[in-house]
Amino acid sequence: MEKITSKNNELIKYAKKLFTSHRARISEQKFVLEGARLCFDALNSDTAVTHFLITEKAAEKYPAQFEKMVKISDSAYFISEEAAEKLGGTQSTQGVFCICEMQKKTAEIEKDKKYIALDRIQDPSNLGALIRTAEALGIDGAICFSCCDAYNPKALRASMGSILRLPVIPSLDLAADIDKARAAGFSVYAAVPSGNARDVTAVSFPASSICVIGNEANGVSDEVKNAADELITINMPGRAESLNASTAGAIVMWEMVRGK
Q1: What pLDDT sits at residue 188?
Q2: Residues with Cβ < 8 Å from 178, sequence gap 6 or more?
Q3: What does the pLDDT look like over 33-51, one tens digit per residue?
């Protein structure tokens, strides 16, 4: 395997640009994974790895995964500790990186499945956590409308690899997509912090259902609320007025799959 020693190597600079720039990721349709856990999660997904970069120290620490990653990658390189430090987005890098291709085929909403719809989620950590929870609880996919970049390093870390596996379906018009889903037999709910909405624990979510979680500051948009079949809420007898978006989403998704 070729070894890259200079932190100014063109591939290192290219990877760093993908790591830090949303515009570059969109233009190239590629993103970067950092860390042993995230990179090795690519082994258990359909993610195409174009470049695998690893320090010799890391290769010695993870010999089995190292060999598998070399086999599935289009190209693989040893990199120096100096190059790894330039690439790393964390304080102490593990020395393991992948440049990956974004999914070219977009998943579609399918009947008899349950989805979480994310309406303008802007915090990458919230987005990643919601997708991680969705996969963990058995939600079938996430519909994302005007959300932050799912391939942002913070979102990738928060998802713990779930973004590589859970179908993420982009929406250009969530209200219109909800209308189409309802016409196809889906029941659609919008989660809101309102005492006038139905308690989520009283809802029996059918096999084909979608629940919308709204923006951190403004909640679900009026257009989406009007398109939904029903507004639901999380009953909070305590003194807090609201919940973090990822926490609210976790509770709602648990209720969606409870008794499934």
Answers
A1: 98
A2: 117, 188, 210, 212, 224, 227, 228
A3: 999 999 999 999 999 999 9
Cβ neighbors of 63 (< 8 A, separation 6 or more) are none
Through-space distance between the first and last CA atoms of the chain, rounded to whole angstroms = 49
Residue among 212, 190, 207 nearest 143 (CA): 212
Distances from the Cα of 186 to the Cα of 5, 61, 109, 140, angstroms: 55, 48, 10, 14
Measuring CA to CA, how many Å separate 14 from each of 29, 30, 32, 109, 258? 13, 11, 10, 35, 45
Residue 77, classed as helix, strand or coil, is: strand
What's the pTM value of the predicted model, to 2 decimals? 0.91
pLDDT beneath 50: ranges in the chain: none
At 66, the amino acid letter reads: F
The span from the CA of 124 to the CA of 219, in Å, is 16
